[in-house]
Amino acid sequence: MGAPVTVGVVALDPVLEAGTRTTLLACPDLTVCEPADARVAVLTVDRPGPAELDMVRATRALRHSPAVVLVAGALASGDALHALAAGARGLLPRRDADAPRLAHAVLAASRDDCTLPPRLLEQLLDRPADPRHAAGGWTDGMLSDRERSVLRLLADGHETAEIAQRLAYSPRTVTTVVRDITQRFRLRNRAHAVAYALRAGLL
Questions:
Q1: Helix axes 118-126, 77-86, angle to 10 degrees
Q2: Which residue has the higher pLDDT, 48 or 99?
Q3: Buried b / exposed e along 103-130 (16+ C-beta atoms within 10 A)
Q4: Is 13 helix (H, G, I), strand (E, B) or coil?
Q5: How far is CA 98 from CA 12, 44, 94, 151, in A?
Q6: Are 96 and 82 in contact (CB under 8 A)?
């Protein structure tokens, strides 16, 4: 087993910050430190409004560019899209943020994977597609069979190593495929790519 993943906590409310720290300290695979020195930062908020989304961006802009896991008391589908666009790698409703789930989200973010609760993904898929993307994105570019296979497994909740094993690719190939998709269609991260591909009917 490798060294514990360093994780920092950012919150506007000191009570939320203390509670998140306590939860993270119960995770043996994690070491709590200052956000500026962390590989992953956990942001705990009531709801992702403009100030909270600015926190996501500011945290991503820190010297080590930590991945961000956002834990929110209220997390609607519109909030989720804004948080993903701001650079969050994982989203978790606060009611679900027990030690095992929070540790899973942090460890996934540290591997450049993205986590999104299934019910939140369903809400995203029920939203009308953004016409800006329908007009000039997915419909014009299409996806190769390999890209579609990788996105399907991402949508099912599999992480990079699992996808590589199932498709007989190297983990590096899987990472490259996802990066190519997100860059081509100007998406922020993996969850954003899965949501838009599903909504555009390409999966």
A1: 100
A2: 99
A3: bbbbbbbbbebbbbbeebbebbbeeebe
A4: coil
A5: 20, 13, 8, 28
A6: no
61-75, 163-177, 186-200: the lowest-pLDDT one: 186-200
- Residues 55, 170: Cα–Cα separation, whole Å: 35
What's the burial of 28, exposed, middle or buried (CB within 10 Å: 0-12/13-18/19+)?
exposed
Decide if 137 contacts 186 (C-beta within 8 A): yes
Rounded Cα gap, residues 6 and 29, in angstroms: 9
Residue entry with tokens 């009917």: 201
- Residue ranges of alpha helices (H) inside 44-144 are 50-60, 77-86, 99-110, 118-126, 131-136, 138-141
Q: Which residue has the higher pLDDT, 23 or 189?
A: 23
Q: Which structure tokens are listed for 156?
A: 């099912």
Q: How far apart are CA 18 and CA 55, in angstroms?
A: 18
Report the amino acid identity of residue 136: G
Kind and range of the H or E element at 6? strand 5-11
Residue that is written with structure tokens 């099912």 in the block? 156
Query: To which residue do tokens 């909740």 refer?
Result: 157
pLDDT-wise least confident of 56-70, 111-125, 166-180: 111-125
What is the rounded CA–CA span in Å between residue 47 and residue 70? 10
Cα-based distances in Å from 173 to 69, 147, 148: 25, 11, 14
